[in-house]
Amino acid sequence: MEIAASPPRRVSASGASRLTPNASPLTANESAYQVERLRFRYRKGSDAHGEPEHDGDGWVLKGLTFEVRAGEIVGVIGPNGSGKTSLLKLLARILRPHEGALTLFGRAVAGLQQAEVARTVALVPQESPILFPFTITEMVLMGRFPHHRIVRGLSGFGWEGPEDIRLAEEAMQETDVAHLADRLISDVSGGERQRAVIARALTQQPRVLLLDEPTAFLDLHHQLDICRILRRLNEERGLTVVLVSHDLNLASQYCDRLLLLNEGEVYRMGPPSDVIRPDVLEAVYRCQVLVDHHPLSGLPRVTLPGRLMTSDVRREASGVRREA
Q1: Residue 51 DSSP label
Q2: Cβ atoms within 10 Å, residue 47
Q3: Are residues 206 and 298 in the same domain?
Q4: How much is the pTM?
Q5: Phi (first) and psi of residue 248, to 5 degrees
Q6: Measured between alpha carbons, how far is 173 from 184 in angstroms, rounded to an integer?
């Protein structure tokens, strides 16, 4: 396991909004998450959280140790089955670790109530099934639930106040769905739906935003749209972002650091230049890749050579990265 250090990063909170009530200048020396020797496994036959069943003796996560600093964007990458989604659910306290320590802004997550976590951390799952004909506004307002004591048995809406409405409207403006406020969630495109789900998360007023493959199933335009929104929220609001992605190029371009998981362990963590390397990726993904520099950003870029790969082409294309 290798975890590379990166210089402190300062985030301006000059654009503070009601969506980030605790917004203040952040330095990367402040920890959002501290994870130490974290181990987790599913009970055999348990599928309560929609996860595939695992052998009761098999650890899904095997002693993870890393840090997420406040105000940074961390991309979690790795092959299928490496534990990425399980890790995200542990960070959101949907799942609980069997061993190890997990702290959120210095507080042990194990000692927090779920509502406390939900007022600090918002999760955007890979799929957000909406079974009822809610409008975009109604769905976005659901993000206010952690801030209210809802009477058991209360059905429908009507609990929201003027401040809740203002926060929902601001979140929809932030994610460019305000013009869809009265549309049914079932009647909008995949990209619009994803932006609305992110707006719902923002109305929780979180300090941390967790996202599980936020660009999956979206076309190129909407992929870039989501990434730009996340980067803007990070830079203008000081929001800490942890996202799972299978798109190594988007992760390289938009994330400050990458956490590469392999078989339930931290294989490497650091800035994209330390993680997106041919030797590292080939060892983990077990396929040949070409890695060069993006012509505009200079950040690492991955190309799958497919049937055109030869050893000479590979050396010529990836030589710079191997020498770095």
Answers
A1: P
A2: 11
A3: no
A4: 0.84
A5: -65, -30
A6: 17
How many whole angstroms separate alpha carbon 239 and alpha carbon 20?
Answer: 8
Say whether both 312 and 163 belong to one domain.
no
- Tell me, what amino acid is at 247? D
Give yes or no: residues 312 and 173 share one domain. Answer: no
Task: For residue range 89-112, list pLDDT tens digits in order.
Answer: 999 999 999 999 999 999 999 999
Q: Which of 1-15, 32-46, 178-192 has the lowest mean pLDDT?
A: 1-15
- Per DSSP, 66 falls in state E
3-state class (DSSP) for residue 140: helix
Q: Which domain holds residue 246?
A: 2-275
Choice between 127 and 256, residue whose per-residue pLDDT is larger: 256
How confident is residue 43, by pLDDT bands cut at 50, 70 and 90? confident
In angstroms, the CA 134 to CA 140 distance is 10
Count CB atoms within 10 A of the CB of residue 127.
Answer: 10
Residue whose pair of structure tokens reads 């406040």 in the numeric block: 70
CA distance 190 to 82: 27
SS3 62: strand
Calpha distance 258→280 (Å, rounded): 12
Choose among 61, 74, 147, 56: nearest CA to 102: 61
Burial 64-84 (b: 16+ CB within 10 A, else e): bbbbbbbbbbbbbbbeeebbb
14, 72: one domain: yes
Q: What angle do CA 190, 195, 199 make, to 5 degrees?
A: 145
> Mean pLDDT in the chain?
85
> Are 203 and 151 spatial neighbours (Cβ–Cβ below 8 Å)?
no
Reported as a single tens digit per residue, the pLDDT across 260-316 is 999 999 999 999 999 999 999 999 999 999 999 999 999 999 999 876 665 555 555
Compute the distance between CA of residue 32 and CA of residue 9 in angstroms, rounded to an integer: 14
- Over residues 229-271, the pLDDT tens digits come to 999 999 999 999 999 999 999 999 999 999 999 999 999 999 9
